[in-house]
Each structure stands twice: as C-alpha cells, then as structure tokens.
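hey so i finally got around to running the thing on that chain from the lab meeting. sorry it took forever, my laptop kept dying and i had to restart like 3 times. anyway pasting the input first so we r on the same page abt which one it is
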Amino acid sequence: MSTTDPRAALTALIDALERHYTAAVDSSGQDDPALDRANDRLAEAFDIYDGALFDAVGTATPLVVFDDEDDFDDFDDDDDDYEDDEDDDLDEDFEDFDDLDDDEFDDDADDADDDDEDDSRH
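ok and heres what got predicted. didnt touch it at all, straight out
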C-alpha cells in the first residue's frame, strides 16, 4: 500500500514529463544516456502516481508502462491472437456456403429478388 499523496505524485509525474520532454528535444538519439534516465524516471514517477491514485480513490489510469522491448513484443502478440480468431470466424462463415450446390445458392438469391418485387407492389 502506498502512503504517497496522489496530488504530490501527480506533481512529480508532471515534472518527470517536463524533464523527459527536455531530454527528448536535446537528445542525440535513442542511445542517449540522458534520455534513458529520463525514460526511467518518467516510468517510475508514473508507477508511483498510478499506485497512489489507486490507493487513495480506487481508480487506476488506463495506461501501461513497458519495462523493455520484450514486454512490448508480448503485448503485440496478443493482438495477433485476436486477428487469428477473427480469421477463424470468417473461415467458419464461408464453410456454411461450401455445402450448398450452385442451384441452392441461386435459389436463395432468387428468393431475395422475389421479396423486392413484393415490396414494390405495396
């Protein structure tokens, strides 16, 4: 349980965001040690704020901080699983039509045309 005041943690998070912005603007690239430190401090400030907010009011932020690229890759894999499930659902939908011969498929289309004609008469 955190004993940190959420307002103080928010102020520290905002300061960490400002320092991160400055480090990013002044950075010489992704391998810049100052930017790495700013990233770490920002992640730590966010975790402290998120915990303090949850402890104080029972609400967490909708954000996730990744520790390194491996965590991000794991998260990305979850999206792939969802896409695979969607593909499986589409395959099952098309299997329903595999059992129909051409005449049955055409009859269904003709029935729809008949309904359109009935609607135009009213």
